[in-house]
Amino acid sequence: MPELYAYTDGACSGNPGPGGWGVLMRAIDQGSVVKERELSGGEAMTTNNRMELMAAISALETLARPSGITIVTDSAYVKNGITEWMTAWKRKNWRTASGPAVRNLDLWQRLDAAQARHSVTWQWIRGHAGHAENERADALARAGMALFKTGRASQ
User: Are strands 119-124 and 32-46 parallel, antiparallel or unpaired?
Assistant: First the structure.
């Protein structure tokens, strides 16, 4: 059975500003890519963290059935949030250790729900370090952002 990977990235021009997200999904069997799919999108006014979250959410929500998948992200915010901080946030009714409500709560809850359907392994990699799949996800995110920077996307 092929192993599934989703390489995710988000981008923003200004923070907040026009933003985009990108996902390179791959099914790999015995070391060879057997299927590949690219996803991207964006928003007119958003933040980089929201776009990083949307990339991971989109990867998981696009899967038609419960699956084992490795999400590869260059966002420590996403990786640490989902693997380390979320348990405490939920225990404190979605509040941080210092008391205020968790930022981007709508997307964290959506990611939590999307992850619950699957067996997810989270992997962090350094961004812009020559990792080909991460560079492709970055290009997809920038393409999603570009639609909103130029006004070609419906808002």
Answer: unpaired
Q: Is 67 helix (H, G, I), strand (E, B) or coil?
A: coil
**Cβ(25)–Cβ(39) below 8 Å:** yes
Lookup result for tokens 């419960």: 66
Cα distance between residue 102 and residue 20, in whole Å: 22
Task: Render 31-62 in DSSP notation, one character per residue.
Answer: TEEEEEEEEEEEEEEE-HHHHHHHHHHHHHHT
Q: Which two tokens stand for residue 127?
A: 């961004």
For residue range 6-57, list pLDDT tens digits in order.
Answer: 999 999 999 999 999 999 999 999 999 899 999 999 999 999 999 999 999 9
Phi, psi dihedrals of residue 41, rounded to the nearest 5°? -170, -175
C-alpha–C-alpha distance, residues 60 and 66, integer Å: 9
User: Token pair 């026009």 is at which residue?
Assistant: 18
Buried b / exposed e along 36-68 (16+ C-beta atoms within 10 A): eeebbbbbbebbbbbbbbbbbbbbbeeeeeeee
Residues with catalytic function = 9-10, 52, 74, 128, 138
